[in-house]
Write a structure and sequence with these properties.
Structural class: alpha+beta
CATH superfamily: SMI1/KNR4-like
CATH class: Alpha Beta
CATH architecture: 3-Layer(aba) Sandwich
Strand content: 15-25%
Protein name: SMI1/KNR4 family protein
InterPro entries: Knr4/Smi1-like_dom
Pfam family, one: SMI1_KNR4
Number of domains: 1
Organism: Croceibacterium xixiisoli
Order of helices and strands: HHHEEHEEEEHH
Length: about 180
């Protein structure tokens, strides 16, 4: 599934409930080239930010399939600020271990520089990342989720395109849970 098709399908889901679906204007081509050029992003994520610079808070755009927590599409500046904040506190979690074994395609650690956040729920209690530095057997661009309390990191999809398809299927199946009431 392409990012443009995904966002249009989400827009249509909102329209079925007569709810407004707003995204921020895309970054200028110059800003997009400058900012995205510094990051090694998978195509699907770069394309999302080329279409729109995220969306407003408390407007779910993405899902964690099988959970009822819709995630906001982070503007690029917020995503990079969150990444910097996580990088800054990651040292507090050296040696941290999860209660359950992690999928072996995701490197160990509480936060890694190769994780690029693109969506969040509840003040970053749940964060969705494009994993740009997977463990052996993983793919660049696989989608992972961080969930706080208890802290855990799970693999959601082996690539962005399949994640978008899974997220959309769950969003559409449970749209009344994700589309905010006007």
């Amino acid at each position: 599934m392409t990012p443009i098709a995904y966002l249009e399908a989400i827009r249509a889901a909102y329209a079925q409930f007569d709810a407004a679906f707003e995204l921020h204007q895309p970054l200028s081509p110059e800003d997009t080239a400058l900012t995205l050029g510094k990051l090694e992003l998978p195509h699907w994520l770069a394309e999302l930010w080329r279409v729109a610079d995220g969306g407003p808070s408390w407007q779910p755009v993405f899902t964690r399939p099988n959970y009822f927590t819709g995630a906001d599409f982070l503007p690029l500046a917020e995503a990079l600020a969150l990444r910097d904040r996580l990088r800054g506190i990651a040292g507090n979690f050296v040696g941290w271990q999860e209660d359950k074994p992690r999928d072996p395609r995701v490197r160990p650690g509480w936060f890694l520089d190769g994780w690029v956040p693109f969506a969040a729920f509840g003040g970053s209690t749940i964060v969705l990342f494009a994993d740009c530095d997977p463990a052996p057997g993983g793919l660049v661009g696989q989608v992972i989720a961080y969930v706080h309390d208890p802290d855990q990191i799970t693999l959601l999809a082996p690539d962005g395109e399949s994640y978008l398809a899974q997220s959309l299927a769950w969003f559409l199946e449970q749209a009344e849970e994700f589309v905010p009431e006007e």
